[in-house]
């Protein structure tokens, strides 16, 4: 349940060919530390990557645990994506809403994010393809540092 189907350093390293090879027709993307860093800067090349994905007729939505509506809406608008905030991952509710916005069955969707215990776990429980990326930023809070160490330990097993 916690083993990702694929791992990449950055979301922009995921090729269209890789997605097509795995019959992915839709993506649900995490926002914080996957598309943007802790300072709110978009990952270099992410706009161009999203355009390529859209040009390949792959649908995209953002599903984030962020409770800041304006923040999430602003990034979604900048990137031309639909979104669900307050997703409460790994609870399925928010990701189900995002899948509904994509109008695709879960087995045709990949969930992409930087956290094992939220993004990968919810994807596995929803029968979605799970892609784990490395976090863009170094964690600032002690709880996040502990969580990342636990994630590394679980991945090594």
Provide structural commentary:
The protein is of the alpha/beta class. The protein has a single domain, classed as 3-Layer(aba) Sandwich (Rossmann fold), CATH 3.40.50.1000. Helix content is 39%, strand content 16%. It has six helices and six strands, in the order E-H-E-H-E-H-E-H-E-H-E-H. The protein has a six-stranded parallel beta sheet with strand order 1-6-5-2-3-4, sandwiched between helices. Helix 5 links the parallel strand 5 and strand 6. The longest helix is centred in the C-terminal third of the chain and has 15 residues, at 142-156. The radius of gyration is 14 Å and the shape is globular.
Report the uncertain regions.
none
Elements, N to C (H/E): EHEHEHEHEHEH
Question: What proportion of the residues is helical, as a percent range?
Answer: 25-40%
Number of domains: 1
CATH architecture: 3-Layer(aba) Sandwich
In the CATH hierarchy, what is the superfamily? HAD superfamily/HAD-like
Described by strand count, sense and barrel closure, the largest sheet is:
6 strands, parallel
What structural class should be given to the helix and strand makeup? alpha/beta
Beginning-to-end CA distance, first to last residue: 13 Å
Write down the CATH class: Alpha Beta
Average pLDDT figure: 91
| Strand runs, count | 6
Q: How much beta, percentage-wise?
A: 15-25%
Spatial arrangement of strands, main beta sheet: 1-6-5-2-3-4
Compute the gyration radius: what is it? 14 Å
CATH third-level topology: Rossmann fold
Can you count the helices? 6
